[in-house]
Specification:
Elements (H helix, E strand, L loop, with lengths): L1 H23 L5 H9 L1 H17 L6 H33 L11 H33 L2 H21 L1 H8 L18
Keywords: Membrane, Transmembrane, Transmembrane helix
Length: 189
């Protein structure tokens, strides 16, 4: 059942976000849109309460509980940037805002971007692991929480793999793509 709650929270995140942005831009209801956008973190609170209630009700921690902690960590760490990403696109499309910024393509700017994203992943991992350890301490029964310790290793592995992007961009920065020369119309092969 907790997997369904996680899926519902992911869907709820996007529904609340889209509702807030739709109210803000196409409907021009700025305050309503801002209020809805402020409700986005409440979706995470629903998942946290559902996970805690399930464990408090005597459930043995399993895959879903670890996934909930990981989801919450990544949602907190990346949530603001996801809202900003969507806001830029809505503002451009419905309010004449500037074109959305993409990630830098090369050079030092791209390297900084990759390290910043890695920093968010590190924060997400720290939050996820803190939630896992808090659940283990809260339940206080090693037999019921054994599966949660495995999730700390999974999150660490994801972070280690993620580190490859900023490291490779630091060691071998991407170079600008060379412009292709237009074909010579006089030359016919």
């Amino acid at each position: 059942m907790l997997i369904a709650v996680i899926a519902g929270c992911e869907i709820g995140f996007w529904v609340v976000l889209a509702s807030g942005l739709a109210a803000r831009y196409p409907l021009r209801l700025r305050r309503t849109g801002a209020a809805l956008l402020l409700c986005v973190p409440l979706v995470d609170l629903v998942l946290l309460v559902a996970t805690a209630a399930d464990l408090r009700g005597g459930a043995t921690a399993g895959f879903a509980h670890g996934l909930a902690a990981a989801y919450l960590g990544y949602s907190v760490a990346f949530g603001h940037s996801m809202v900003r990403w969507a806001d830029e696109r809505f503002a451009h499309r419905f309010a004449g805002g500037p074109p959305p910024r993409g990630k830098p393509g090369h050079g030092a700017a791209r390297t900084r971007y990759e390290w910043r994203e890695f920093g968010k992943a590190a924060v997400a991992t720290a939050i996820g692991c803190a939630l896992l350890l808090a659940m283990i301490a809260w339940i206080g029964d090693a037999d019921r929480t054994e599966a949660l310790l495995g999730w700390t290793a999974r999150l660490g592995l994801v972070l280690a793999i993620w580190s490859l992007w900023p490291i490779t961009h630091t060691l071998w920065p991407a170079k600008p793509k060379k412009a292709r020369k237009p074909a010579d119309p006089a030359r016919q092969d």
